[in-house]
Design goal:
By secondary structure, the protein is of the alpha+beta class. About 55% of the residues lie in helices and about 20% in strands. Strand 12 and strand 13 form a beta hairpin.
Length: about 425
Amino acid sequence: MNPYEKKRRWKFFLLIFAIVIGTASVFYSDFFVKKMEREEQVQFQLYVKVTEQSLVMYDDDRFTDLIETITKNTKLPVIMTDGDGLINSYQGLDSAKTNYGVEKQYKKTYDPAYFERELKQMKLQHPGTPIIGLDGKIWHIYHKDSFILTQLRYFPFIQLGVIGLFLLTAYVAFSSARRSEQDQVWVGMAKETAHQLGTPISSLMAWIELMKSRFNAEDDPLIAEMENDLKRLEVITDRFSKIGSKPVLEDHVVYSVIDNFIQYFKLRTSDKVVFSITGDDQVRAMLNIPLFDWVTENLLKNAANAIENEGHITVNIIEHLAKEEVYIDVTDTGKGIPRSKFDAVFQPGYTTRKRGWGLGLSLTKRIVENYHSGQIFVKDSELGKGTTFRIILKSSIKYEPTSTKRIPGMGIDLH
């Protein structure tokens, strides 16, 4: 199992664990909510019985204190209406809005609309309980859930939201720290590799010069190819040395840069793979050639490895005039990539080969996005038919808004 598969499996297990915790929390809170609902319903029924008895024995002083004690200890918001639907009694409402004639002394007001709103809300929550009123008509007592019960209903969702926010913050923080640590490892490994390659490259250069002079092989094609490979090693060393530092971007013709690398690369690949480059041969972009060659090399190597027998690799360069962007499409006729793996192929450690570290496309993505401020993604792929990778770079050619005339560089007027 490669590191990407391990990470995905751990994410899956953590997601299941979070769902289990969230579900258990919701069910546990729901248990208490229902229990509290039953208790409030019993309390309301007691209030109704006491109120009903108080209306029957309203002139019996023996039960007055007991009835008042029970009704005052009822914390539920309650409103009683008469046979005509008018409010004639209430309990547990906001005292700041239910006072008569004491506004100036206690700075409290009487708000009739407040009663109407509360009654409407009570009717929506629970049906009214009928009782026999003093006039012999049917009166109704309404109530609504207490403030604590209402808060408790929303508590699981608030709790899950807080937990989710905490987990998201922790995930972002740990991911950022992990990426920073990975970057330090990349930089350290790259610079150490560049340092280690320096000595043997210098030695090989000296041996080639000695072979030229001893065997009079200045024009020998084999020596020339050895020199090309040695120059390639120097380029690779230069690439590694630039990792971790801000590269110098220069204005280049994209077609020429890619074509030069293809001419070198196709001589070192199977002759059954045909290379071609098409599209706009004048479009320009800000590039660091050693690093961008690395991008091209990784894409072409992956394309060549995806072709089992004979095949074709095409690099098409397109310029989007309106967006001032350059599109570079690398298309192969290989085995293709499943759609579910379009993002995974750029993950460090992801590989479909028995040999390999799965770092090529990860490095490619870093170089394109971090150093060239571009984008790279799998544009299209079909199993058994091939894959197209797309690179998007900012064009270094500006355009006049009133014409299609090209202005190289930083918008120099050509009128």
